[in-house]
Structure formats: C-alpha cells, structure tokens
C-alpha cells in the first residue's frame, strides 16, 4: 500500500509525547477482501517492523489456517502502529532492575494514529474487517460493550473516522467481525472453545459470501 508521507509524519509527531517505540504500518494483500485490525505492535513487531509475529502471530496463523486462509490472503494492520510500553521491575541480569512491558494503548494514542487506519480502509475497501480484540472493535464501531457479546458476529455498520479532535461515522458501511485477540488464549485458556466457535461462525459467513 502506498502511503502519503504527510500522514505518516503526522502520526509519528502526534505520538512523541507517549511511551511508545517502533512503527508498523501493515502487511499483506491490500487488494484482497479481508482486512485484519489488531490492537498495537508488541516487542517483536516493533523491532522487526512486521505485524503479528511471535507467539500471538503463531496463534493467528493457526486461526487463519482453520479458516482456510493464509497471511498472503489478508491484509494485517493495527489501531496503533507503535508499541505502547510501561516500565516494570525485573530481576533479570543486565536489565538494571527494570524492563519494558507491553500495555494497552490509551485513547490519545489510538486517536494519534486514527488517520492511518482511516486511509487504509478507504484505499482497500475490504469486504470484511476482522477486529481482533476489544480495542480494535471499539475503535472501528464506537461500541464500548463487551466483545464477548458480539464475538464471531458479522455486523454491517459504518466505521468511525477521525474528525476535528473526535470521530464521525463513515457514509459507507462495512462488515465487521469481532474476534478475541489471538494472545487472549495465553492468559485465559478457558476461552479456547469460544474462540473456535466464533471462527466457525466466521467460516460459515465467508463461505456464504464468496
């Protein structure tokens, strides 16, 4: 995907006040029918400049395979393009007693990169947008409810677009399918059945919508 330099520079400038590192725009088939939107890069992603690598990336690959797809078939991006981090204590040698840990992006950080996601959606016009986790789902739809209430549903809706310090709804409607973030199963193994039930629902929708 070709990027207007001004959009990228503006986003980086907006993020300067916050504890973030790296910059990952996205990767994959930007002419395909499926866009995947995650939360933010983690440590590995920030270092290598690629979305969803490491443990969460391996889990995403398993889920895509279950759906009959591969990374080459989809475009992967995120709400925030830089890794949000916080300092935590560690006893690991050579770290000086502290290390950087991933954290959830705040609303100002999400807004700082809003124009980038708006641009990607407008350029790609995907048939389906998969929102991985509550942060991505809320950014796209404005819905602050529990993702567990809608996980796996194909929701036809306008998406939020940046406008003058806030958001407005797009004139176009898109099909948003919220799924649990791939990393969620590491912290709560009990939701594995729910994850695959939601994937079954998405698989049925993809087959009907071919």
Brief summary of the model shown:
The chain has 210 residues and is α/β, with parallel strands linked by helices. The chain is built from eight helices and nine strands.
CATH fold name: Uracil-DNA Glycosylase, subunit E
- Give the overall form: globular
Instruction: Give the helix/strand class.
Output: alpha/beta
Beta strand %: 25-35%
Domains, number: 1
The number of helical runs is: 8
Instruction: Tally the beta strands.
Output: 9
Low-confidence stretches: none
The major beta sheet can be summarized as:
6 strands, mixed
CATH level-1 class: Alpha Beta
What is the CATH architecture annotation? 3-Layer(aba) Sandwich
- As a percent range, the share of helical residues equals 25-40%
Return the average pLDDT rounded to an integer. 95
Strand adjacency order, main sheet:
2-4-3-7-9-8
CATH superfamily: Uracil-DNA glycosylase-like domain
The rounded distance between the terminal residues' Cα atoms is: 24 Å
Please trace the helix and strand order, writing H or E for each element: HEEEHHEEEHHEHEEHH
Question: For the CA atoms, what is the radius of gyration?
Answer: 17 Å
Explain what this protein looks like in three dimensions.
With 210 residues, the protein is of the alpha/beta class. It has one domain (5-209): 3-Layer(aba) Sandwich (Uracil-DNA Glycosylase, subunit E). It contains 8 helices and 9 strands. The strands form 2 sheets. It has a 6-stranded mixed sheet with strand order 2-4-3-7-9-8. A 3-stranded antiparallel sheet has the order 1-5-6. Residues 25-197 form the Uracil-DNA glycosylase-like domain. Keywords: 4Fe-4S, DNA damage, DNA repair, Hydrolase, Iron, Iron-sulfur, Metal-binding. It comes from Halobacillus aidingensis.
